[in-house]
Design a protein that fits this description.
This protein has a 3-stranded antiparallel sheet with strand order 2-1-3, with helices on one face. About 40% of the residues lie in helices and about 5% in strands. The chain is mainly alpha-helical and about 170 residues long. The two termini are about 40 Å apart. The chain is elongated, with a radius of gyration of 20 Å. α1 crosses α2. The longest helix has 12 residues. The protein has 7 helices and 3 strands; from the N terminus they run ββαβαααααα.
């Protein structure tokens, strides 16, 4: 299994692309797979492994109740979460992860594009206007949509579909 072949940076549960720090003792929980592979990991990385490897199980390590905490966190963690540490999920990726059959509204797409992808900075638009649009306090005009789409180097139609990049491209 890929997760047992990871490079050990600190604890055994860190994926090579995961740059997050351990949380607590590095043997707080024991994560196992059906083939008998076992690793001792911290609570933080244990949760990330559990969220990614569907056949993994968790049991207590050196910290009482840490396995329960890792399991609880795993339920709220997307698979391969280290991919999202530097860039947020797009609305469609989030919906797929949650198993939601979802058609985004224009307001949701605009909010996501401005708040997450562009971080309230749209060339040609005041920061106040961007904030109001990004918090869905006002409706986007055709001009707003064009400025947002241009900032993301995409078409207005793609913007309206919710198929947005994880972060600003420019």
């Amino acid at each position: 299994m890929f997760w047992l072949e990871v490079a050990v940076h600190v604890c055994g549960g860190i994926h090579p692309e995961d740059r997050t720090a351990c949380e607590g003792p590095q043997d707080a929980v024991r994560v196992s797979d059906p083939s008998g592979g076992v690793m001792l990991v911290c609570v933080h990385h244990g949760a990330r492994v559990l969220a990614t490897v569907t056949v993994a199980t968790v049991s207590p390590g050196s910290v009482p109740r840490a396995a329960i905490e890792a399991y609880r966190r795993a339920k709220e963690t997307p698979p391969n979460v280290w991919q999202w540490d530097d860039e947020p999920m797009t609305l469609i990726e989030y919906a797929v992860w949650k198993g939601i059959d979802w058609e985004p509204t224009q307001a949701e797409c605009v909010r996501h594009a401005i708040a997450v992808c562009l971080r309230f900075q749209v060339p040609g638009m005041s920061r106040d206007r961007a904030f109001l649009l990004g918090t869905t306090q006002v409706e986007a005009t055709d001009t707003d949509l064009t400025l947002i789409a241009d900032a993301l180097d995409m078409t207005v139609e793609r913007l309206r579909s919710g198929d947005l990049p994880g972060q600003a491209t420019g």
